[in-house]
Amino acid sequence: MKINPEYRTKEALLTLYNKPLLELVFEAATIHRKFHNPNEVQMSSLLSIKTGGCPEDCGYCPQAARYQTDIDTHKLMNVDMVIEQAKNAKANGSSRLCMGAAWREVRDNRDFDKVVEMVQAVNNLDMEVCCTLGMLSEDQAKRLKNAGLFAYNHNLDSSKEFYGDVISTREYDDRLNTIDNARKAGLTVCSGGIIGMGEAVEDRVGLLLSYMEMETPPESIPINSLVAVEGTPLEEQKPIEQWEMIRMVATSRIAFPESVIRLSAGRTKMNMEAQALCFMAGASSIFAGDKLLTTPNPEYNEDMEMFRILGLTPKLAFQDGDKPVSNPDPINEKKKAEALAREKELMEAKKEAEGFEPRKIVTVK
Ligand code: SF4
Questions:
Q1: What are phi and psi of 65, to 5 degrees?
Q2: In terms of Cα–Cα distance, which of 64, 63, 59 is closest to 235?
Q3: Phi, psi of 181, deg, nearest 5
């Protein structure tokens, strides 16, 4: 049951969201137990492989170049550095690595070639690999799929109606189009939203309605609460009540029984009791590590202590889908072959030059 047919309309979702809290949590927990192991929570790591300098204007995002925020920007990481970080994340219990680059869209350039290599390398470590790179075409999605990408993340953020209040540089339909391209390439989809941006409850369920209307809803739905960062247009937003996060998680769980609901940004504002209620209500993943791209996240040790107290165990990789095969990338292979041929030519030219007798200059007296 990919979607719960009882909640196909905005009205039904709204009634669900507004149910007495404990009833809502009970209903969500009942569904959660039918489709998931309630004692397993996946630890995922989010790695910013290219930080800052993004031309988009997402009002919540410190990585947008137009906002004055206090982040350490950097160009695309090299592949070895990513492998090292992935190994550390795995050693600390993460079974999924999400690599994020602050791009408007994927371009067919050397940076993308490198990302393809990163995907292959991390998939070879037996971790689920997810990428969030902005808009992408079907061909680019196919290239990532061929390299062994497990999921592509592209959030809708909020309802179609509220979206324009937060982002003006690309349309909701652009986002839907990217999700569609990922689907056509055979990737699983990770897509969710942020609450606490000043939206109404109708917008929160409006986000879920957008997923209800898809032919296949996302396999993974991250639920974030806004981390209001100084320098962004949403810096003054007041934090939401923890109950709102619990309601959103529970409503998402009931509406999409099979999807993985990820308790994502904003956990530093939640106490352990509230997080426990989220797990009970169907959240089965957290992001581990002290940073979520650029915003703070609970320390690794705090999470381990929470797992111990709640009796949770980290979920292993590929419980929700087979490990993708990493095939050689035809574009990178061709470029490597060309580079080798060029190097060979250069060597030969150098050898030839070494054996070459300099022309004797005959001076005429
Ligand atoms: S959310 Fe992504 S697309 Fe939007 S400004 Fe930040 S990095 Fe750019």
A1: -60, -25
A2: 59
A3: -65, -40
Indicate which atom in ligand 1 lies nearest the CA of residue 132: 2
**Which pLDDT band, with edges at 50, 70 and 90, does 49 fall under?**
very high
Q: How much distance in Å is there from the Cα of 195 to the middle of ligand 1?
A: 16
The mean pLDDT value for 239-250 works out to: 97
Among 56, 158, 170, 171, which residue has the most ligand 1 atoms within 8 Å of its CB, making it the best to mutate? 56
Distance 291 CA to ligand 1 centre (A): 16
Nearest CA-CA partner of 196 in 164, 223, 232, 160: 223
Q: What is the mean pLDDT of residues 102-118?
A: 97
Residues that are catalytic: 54, 58, 61, 98, 130, 190, 262
Hey, what CATH class is 5-326 in? alpha beta
Domain positions in the chain are 5-326
| CA 240 / ligand 1 centre spacing (Å) | 22
Pairing between strand 128-132 and 291-292?
Answer: unpaired
**CA 105 to ligand 1 centroid distance, Å:** 10
pTM: 0.93
Ranges of beta strands (E only) in 40-178 are: 40-50, 96-101, 128-132, 151-153
For the cut 90, the answer to whether the pLDDT of residue 294 exceeds it is no
pLDDT value at residue 341: 93
Report the nearest atom of ligand 1 relative to the CA of 102: 7
Inter-residue long-range contacts of 320-328, CB under 8 Å, 24+ positions, other chains counted? 320/219, 320/260, 321/150, 321/188, 321/219, 323/123, 323/126, 323/150, 324/123, 324/145, 324/148, 324/149, 324/150, 325/148, 326/119, 326/120, 326/123, 326/124, 326/147, 326/148, 327/146, 327/147, 327/148
How far is the C-alpha of 98 from the C-alpha of 340, rounded, in Å? Answer: 32
Q: Which residues line ligand 1 (CB under 6 A)?
A: 54, 56, 58, 61, 63-64, 102, 134
